[in-house]
Backbone:
């Protein structure tokens, strides 16, 4: 079991054993999570650096923020730990260049929830992980799945570069949108994924239902769809039932449901919104609450078999729990996993089709 997991030493253990200075590249939430894990594991941080454009006398968590070139001038050999997410080719290329000159680790920390994705975590969940691997529809999905898990354990970006697929290829070869789609966009942000779908359908569709809980994002979404026929936009979170939920607004992609906010937002289920109408494509990127959103679309998934596009990277357990849930609701689905350009393993998604 789990013969496809070849990495058995966690990057945290490798960093703990390092004799060279360790410098964190980046500031923000990712750096805070990594530094917290470092403290728990007794890993010493020697300093922080950021991209040259962001270094203007900044300090972060008590460290003066340097330029990489400043560190390279005074330290001969050191380890770099990446602490931010990169989804553009220019930034990814910079990271690859740094990795060619220094030992680079990209520790996996969950976007939502606690705990770390380690080899021991995989062993604890071996049966479920193996079940997903065995249920995947093609060899490439199995390679992607193996590489993503090995990356999460090791922090080695080579695993990601080996399995990065252009978004256009995923749409053309797996989703294959047509001109009569009933498209449901959960986590619609500013309309970017609606725009993607319309590119492949020449702007033609049956209807579009879009949910976005963040008010500022929703204003951008409403502006984008203004004047479009048969488009229904909801300032609401995707959930398993219709209710209200506490919500932390960040006016970005990371706005999320939280237990510690007095700000309430409407929450809707897909099955409630659609009524008797059948979805043909459902996309879910709801910041760690995909499981609840799937249950809210359970009738559509089990009876209507819409094509599914579901994020697998917000919580540690998503990579096995979500495929198994969708397969349980509709055993007829063929499951595919693809990773789009991103470091760390964000934009790793599940695609389910008949």
Residues:
């Amino acid at each position: 079991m789990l013969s496809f997991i070849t990495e058995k030493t966690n990057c945290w253990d490798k960093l703990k054993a390092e004799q060279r200075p360790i410098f964190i590249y980046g500031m923000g939430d990712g750096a805070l999570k990594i530094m917290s894990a470092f403290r728990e594991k007794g890993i010493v941080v020697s300093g922080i650096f950021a991209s040259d454009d962001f270094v203007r006398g900044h300090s972060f968590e008590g460290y003066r923020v340097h330029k990489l070139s400043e560190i390279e001038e005074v330290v001969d050999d050191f380890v770099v730990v990446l602490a931010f997410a990169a989804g553009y080719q220019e930034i990814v290329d910079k990271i690859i260049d740094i990795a060619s000159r220094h030992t680079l680790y990209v520790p996996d920390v969950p976007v939502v929830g606690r705990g770390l994705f380690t080899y021991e975590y995989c062993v604890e969940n071996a049966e479920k992980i193996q079940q997903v691997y065995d249920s995947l529809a093609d060899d490439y999905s199995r390679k992607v799945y193996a590489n993503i898990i090995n990356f999460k354990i090791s922090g080695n970006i080579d695993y990601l570069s080996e399995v990065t697929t252009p978004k256009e290829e995923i749409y053309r070869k797996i989703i294959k949108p047509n001109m009569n789609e009933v498209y449901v966009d959960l986590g619609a942000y500013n309309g970017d994924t609606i725009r993607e779908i319309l590119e492949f359908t020449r702007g033609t569709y049956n209807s579009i239902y879009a949910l976005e809980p963040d008010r500022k994002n929703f204003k951008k979404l409403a502006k984008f769809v203004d004047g479009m026929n048969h488009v229904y936009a909801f300032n609401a979170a995707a959930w398993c039932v219709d209710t209200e939920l506490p919500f932390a607004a960040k006016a970005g992609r990371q706005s999320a449901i939280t237990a510690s906010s007095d700000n309430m937002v409407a929450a809707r289920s897909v099955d409630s919104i659609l009524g008797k109408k059948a979805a043909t494509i459902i996309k879910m990127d709801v910041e760690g609450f995909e499981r609840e959103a799937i249950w809210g679309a359970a009738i559509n998934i089990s009876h209507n078999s819409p094509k599914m596009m579901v994020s697998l990277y917000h919580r540690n357990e998503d990579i096995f729990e979500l495929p198994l849930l969708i397969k349980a609701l509709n055993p007829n689905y063929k499951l595919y996993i693809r990773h789009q350009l991103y470091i760390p393993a964000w934009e790793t998604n599940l695609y389910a089709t008949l």
Notes: The chain has a mean pLDDT of 95. The radius of gyration is 21 Å.
